Amino acid sequence: ALALAIASALCPEGSGGLTKRRGASPSSPVHEYRGMFKGRPAFFKVTATTGHIYSLDFSKESNDWNNTTPAALFHARTVQCYDPGPKIPDLISSEARDADALVLWLDCDREGEAIAFEVLEVCQRAAGGRMQVFRAVFSALTRADLERACQTLRDPDKRLADAVEARQEIDLRAGAAFTRWMTLRYQAMFPELADQPLSFGPCQFPTLGFVVERWLRIQRFVPEPFWTIRMETQKAGHTVRFTWRRGRLFDRLAVLALYELCVEEGDAHGALVVRVSEDPASRWRPLPLNTVEMSKLAATKLRMAPARCMHVAEDLYQRGLISYPRTETDRFPPTIDPRDFIRMHVASSQWGAFAQSLVNGGRFVPPRSGPHDDHAHPPIHPVRCVEPGALSDECWRVYELITRHFLASCAPDARGNRTEVEATVAGEHFVTTGLVIVDRGWLDVYPYANWTNDPLPPFAVNERLALSALEMVESRTQPPPLLSEADLITLMDRSGIGTDATMHDHIQKIQTRNYALKNGEGRLEPSKLGVALVEGYQRFAAEGGLDLSKPELRAQMEQAMAAIARGEHSRQQFLMDAIHATHRCYSALERHAPALDAALGEHFTGHAAVARVAPVLHAAFSTCRC
Length: 626
Prior knowledge:
This protein is α+β, with helices and mostly antiparallel strands and 626 residues long. Helices cover 41% and strands 17% of the residues. It is flat, with a radius of gyration of 32 Å.
């Protein structure tokens, strides 16, 4: 779909048209057309890869679990492998053999740059190293964006590819070594785990650590009683509730003493209004949408898993409906005028009137500038207008979220007036607030947020209020809830675990590995195995090493990989440091394995214990007396 979209957009009118033929790959056809390149007539061939051409793995000998120790994997030889089914190397080689130039149209992020260098290597090998190589930079599959990319071709950036290759190697070595060690040890030690691979990932384990840490906080939580005082009055036919300025106290006798004073004073004189204030209030329009925020909104507002949301967003991108969905950026560059995209939606049956009010009604406001800019892609925004019937329900919900968020970010802030009334009884202060919305602004197009109009009846300073209720109320502190996927993304983003493009994968992986699951409320609950592993690594850390369920080590690696991408750190030095650090952790784990054994033993039954409680099916069945 990408190759066809690019070829269709760039094929000039009157050139004889676009043709399609079968290439060496059964999954990637070749699109051909004639046009101009660098001021000269050219014949173009456009085709596509199916993700990475190569994957990194160990040699056949090192992949033998019985003959290669886990520790040896930190320095074992690695090889490049590829799936022979799609025949992508054959396709690229055959098409590149007689070509003079290569233009790389891979996704404009680190992963795309790494794939670009894989393609480049295959092409140059086939063409004998004589090809000119260019990199196209684009953010949407629109004709304007693709034509602009043709005019601004640059060299591919090896720094970005180096960052990806460094991550691939350290993740392979650390993941394989810890996975092999845990699986071999605990499958043999605990019958319940005999068929359960115990996988380890440098991002996967800190992600699981967040889930387990929240669950443990809940388990260890001890509720405490507290008391507060609530006051009500009737005003203009409405019940107005006041809250105690002190909030709550954990001393029942102290609250009871204050409450009795309030009852005595309230019965005799009521409450005295001492302050009435009115101030302007506003709800800021949302920042432009980036990948992290889109994933969180999908989880909370659409009840859609972040991994599924990314899959749908990529489909919308490939269909030319939205901009590139993997971006850290939450500010529009000065080269993009959002009104150009708003005008496309004036005819929409869903939000056309709102779009009309922005571009023709003088309501447009330049979007706010957030703190993030990856200097590669703008915020996620729609680039074409479609109606609900043109998309599946799932695709429409994501497209609608993106479009409404974009329109909201270009609309005025919601404005209102906030009234606060303060009254006293026996020296205790009570407060109530009200809100009158003057202009809903962006909220008119954004059903995912609300601001409730809640006006107060008029009050005057020194007014006496007759009390309709005065209560001393007991409550208990509550534990925090289990993490939602949106909560988990926030923690991962704050701690530097994964990237905007990979966080959803790590969340999905701890579920497919049976380390955590979503409960009926859509919140993440660790499994028995997930709890056992995290508790075990915490005990190991206490005795002799770094806690690998915490984000610190991975966050340092992510920062170092970002430095590689900026050209501030070499791939070789990063790998030397990262392999040394993880190997040191592994060696400490081997030395202090009993700490992890004991933690798993608290949740799973070992072979010896199973044998002790095994039932006797039939005793004294032999008559032999020898």
